[in-house]
Amino acid sequence: MNVLIKNIYNPFKTQCQIVRNLHVSPIYLKTQAGRYRITPKKDFPLTYEMANPPHMIASRKAWNSWNTSNVQGGLRSSETAVEDHFIRKFMIGTWHGLFVSEIIIKRQHNIIRIAGLISRTASSRKMYFLIGYTEELLSIWLQCPVKLELQTVADKKDVIFKYI
Amino acid sequence: MNISSIILRRHNHIKNTKLVGRLFYTAVEEKIEIPKRIPRGPTDILRALESTLQRDPTAAHYKYHDDPYLMPKSNTSKRTYAMAEESGRKAAHWVRSENPELFNHKECDPAIDLFFPKQVYDENSEVTEKDLKDVIGKNQVSDAIVINKILTTKGIEVSPETKQSLLELLCYNNSEDTLDEEYIEERWFKQSSRLRERQRKTWKDGNIAEEIFISIDNPTADAYSAIIQGMAKYFQVDRANQLYEEALQKGFVLNADAYNSLIRVANFFKEGYDLRWAYINNILLSMNQAEVKPNLRTLNALLWALSTMGNSKNIKDLTLKTLRQFKDLGIEPCLGSWYYVLITFCKERGPKSNILGNILTQIEGKEFSIQDLADTNFFVTAMDVAKNHLNNIVLGKRVHNLLLKGNNYNLIGDSYKESVYYRHYFGLVLMNTSIDEFMEQFYYKMVPNIYVPEPAVMEDVLKQVEALGATEYLPKLWSDIVIFDQNLREKLINIVLNIMVDNPAKESSELAERFFNIAWDIYTTISEQNLEKINRLSFTGDMLGSIMTVILRYGDFEKACTIMNDLSKSHTTILGVPKFDALSLFVDHCIKNKSPTRAIVCIQYAADSGFPEAVSLGAKLNQHLTLDEIHLNKLSNIIDLKLQ
């Protein structure tokens, strides 16, 4: 492909040679992203979200980021992706060791809602402090209203779907 | 209209038929009136939707997270959670103010000032008059002072209008920063009203407001008005009056609010009621001469002054007259005015007055927005009057309906006023309805999400349960007491135990089991207290006796024995003794369980405690069980067993 383009845009060379490269070996269509490998002892815990591979999105599980920036005419698609990554990093760091699920980021109009499951290892008072801190700092950073929608689980094991 | 005419033409042949003709004619005559367009704001739809929502009593307030672990259940947790969240917010603001250079990116469009770091002003900042205007508009007092200082040192002239608004800002705030408007929770829980009611001089003499006032070469009437209002607001009354006289001498026309503020502090100038009223009349006369139109705040200031003038009938007449005159002027009283009327008419030691009913007929079904700070006092005072002054539940319910109307709930004030309001309302309903109605319609609905009863209110509820023997509510009440952290209050424990002892549950009923659980719960919570706790609740003999009685009635002999052991072991440390009935019941159960050793311990305890009836216990034991030699010896050591 590269060669082809080069040749097209190089009028001197086009006349002498046109090369087309072909793959002759079969393609190894192994997809690895978003999948977990089985461990020898079969003791690796998976949540429901982790247990379903990416092609199950929209049938057995849903998206982790909800926004309209990638539909036709959507705005700020790259900014949204970077911000979502920032939010995830921020949440994991601020709520250290508390999140037991993926962090779900939902955007509607100018509001960002961040949802997830947290374990009850911190006292509820501390959690309220973190809620206030996170909401305020993220709204200052992203300059729009940010809200947390958290649910607590009594035991980390409650969210484990299976072991592999 | 068009369609009907087409149909008419097509069906011409049946037009003659009377019925059809009439039918279509009516359709033709119908006129469609297009209503006039109502201009709507951008948030009107949201407001309309919001007005269809009511407070859901089964859920916590929406400021709390909707999760069982994060939902507050007692008054303390409500307060801590909300304040913790707010302190988190403050921490975020602190992070921003420490690193302002990191927060200068611009995502929002249009730019929203609140998202950007606050401008910090110091001696070297480049400032203009526009900056000063900006910070005055944003109510930033200390920044305004700094900018003003920079401007004066640099010799930049400020326009008289800006200087006047700076003076007004400083006078209004006593040259101090106020709590940021964003921190609503801190405002809600601060109980500022109680501080405000204490009237003492808080005006800082020689503060910047005064400096600015002096620096104005020829102070205008507006400048005088501002400084008089400021001084009167913070009770520097003498100087306020002095400046007022000065302004009068110069022939200035002050604004209405300056006059109002002087009326408000009239009680500082004149001790006697007649003198005070004469002074106020003087102010009103000079208002009249200066042709200043009084406003709502004038009315409120007058009513407030009248409410401080004792209890005579004359004052009440004057109050009504004032209301009438202002009504003639076209000034409708606000809730704050009604609050002053209420405190004038319904004094603690005065005659009863039904004015609350009259007020309610005037304002029922209306929606209010805040017009005076005193507006927030109305509901709590009205409920207080309904309960303590009149004890009239119908009025209480009318007040409550008014509170729930529209956005009137915004006028409840702060958390302190809210809880006082509900304390009165609960007490009123409790005294005037059956316990069933109270529990069904009020208690289950409002507790704990809208209101958590304070220990005193809980005590009243328990007393009512005790008086009516409505023991079926006791388990629910006890579990609430535990949740609300009131389970170490001696008064409440004693009432609960008394109810259980005086109203024995049917044997082997569900209630008996619940009673047993409550009694055992009381025992374990008291005995498992932290040893280092300062105000530890310790057992009294009566308490242990009652617990033992309830447990024995349920039939758990072993647990009763542990309590008996406690009693006999710490005989010297436990205050008071149990009732004799409890001990007698224990001996009965010992006989039933054929356990003479334990019975003897109990008899020993009874004898040590000085019960003369201990002898009869011994006799009973001896009669029902055949005792061996050792037991008999022990028994005869304790009491004089001549009965054999």
Structural description of this entry:
By secondary structure, chain A is of the alpha/beta class. Chain A folds into 2 domains: 1-30, no CATH class; 45-163, 2-Layer Sandwich (GMP Synthetase, Chain A, domain 3). Chain A contains 5 helices and 6 strands, in the order ααβαβαββαββ. In chain A, β2 (65-66), α4 and β3 form a beta-alpha-beta unit. Chain A starts with a helix and ends with a strand. Mean pLDDT of chain A is 88; it is low at 1-5. By secondary structure, chain B is mainly α. Chain B is built from 33 helices and no strands. Among the domains of chain B are: 218-331, Serine Threonine Protein Phosphatase 5, Tetratricopeptide repeat (Alpha Horseshoe), CATH 1.25.40.10; 333-432; 453-536, no CATH class; 538-644, no CATH class. Residues 13-21 of chain B have low confidence and may be disordered. In chain B, α5 packs parallel to α7, α11 (221-233) packs antiparallel against α12 (237-249) and α16 packs parallel to α18. The chains are: A alpha/beta (164), B mainly alpha (644).
Helix content of chain A: 25-40%
What is the typical, i.e. mean, pLDDT of chain A?
88
Radius of gyration of chain A: 23 Å
The poorly predicted ranges of chain B are 13-21
Protein name (chain B): Small ribosomal subunit protein mS39
InterPro entries (chain B): PPR_rpt, PTCD3, Rib_mS39_PPR, TPR-like_helical_dom_sf
Subcellular location (chain B): Mitochondrion
Main location (chain B): mitochondrion
